[in-house]
Amino acid sequence: MKKEEEHENSCHGEETLIPGGAGWEERFKRIQNLNTEEESDEFYELTAADYFRLAATKKEDKSLKTRKLREAEEAARRAKLTKAVMRVRFPDNHTLEATFHPSEKIQCLIDLLKRVVAHPDTSFYLYTTPPKKQIKDFSQDFYTAGFIPGAIVYFAHDQPKDDGASSTPYLSEEILSLKDLEVTTKAEEPVEPSSEPDTTDAGPAPVEQEPKPAEKKNAKPKWFKM
To answer: Which of UniProt's keywords are assigned here (predicted)?
Structure first.
């Protein structure tokens, strides 16, 4: 009997209650009271803290779903847009038009302008109006900047107005020459009437055809429009 008691006391390192043993009645009453105790109604009632915590969780879930929906709609709209037509207006009333992909950076427009302006070494900036707002973040793409499907921006030099760069054309001579550059193709040879009229034909004399005007083709780059 003693061995059995020792074995029962060693199981899982927990003390085993033995009927009739020391402290049996006291410990049994304590366990019985714990088993028969019921939670009060207050335990199941929501407190103000519980309510606000649940409300915050619901609001967060709704915000998350709304944000994902907005992102999906934005991605669908962006996929439909394939170009951004940018028009740069210069102080001398010339307008340069160039087409970019919406995902390209504004820096691409800056790089293009440096190749076509008359003074590429002179500092310049672009701005929108109204109100006048200088474009400073060239790392933005045209879509994010809101230049979709196109926009008009204005060119200005950082130099004072009395500077020599402001009095000369803003675009290079090579670019300005493209505005009036035309290629003439050979006109068709006129049809000459026969030197000897046909005496057997009673119809009217043949009318001499006027030469057609030469066809003109533009030799401008596809991106260049004035």
So the answer is: Ubl conjugation pathway
**Which residues of the chain fall below pLDDT 70?**
1-46, 51, 160-167, 179-226
**Closest Cα partner for 168 from 213, 159, 222?**
159
The token pair that represents 13 in the structure block:
């390192």
Position 4, amino acid? E
pTM of the model: 0.51
Tell me: cis bond preceding 211? Omega within 30 of 0 counts: no
Tell me the residue length of the chain.
Answer: 226
CB-based contact 87:109 (threshold 8 Å): no
Q: How far is residue 151's CA from residue 87's CA, in Å, rounded to a whole number?
A: 6
Amino acid code (one letter) for 204:
P
Are 140 and 106 in contact, with CB atoms under 8 Å apart? Answer: yes
Sort 117 into a burial class: Cβ within 10 Å, 0-12 / 13-18 / 19+. buried
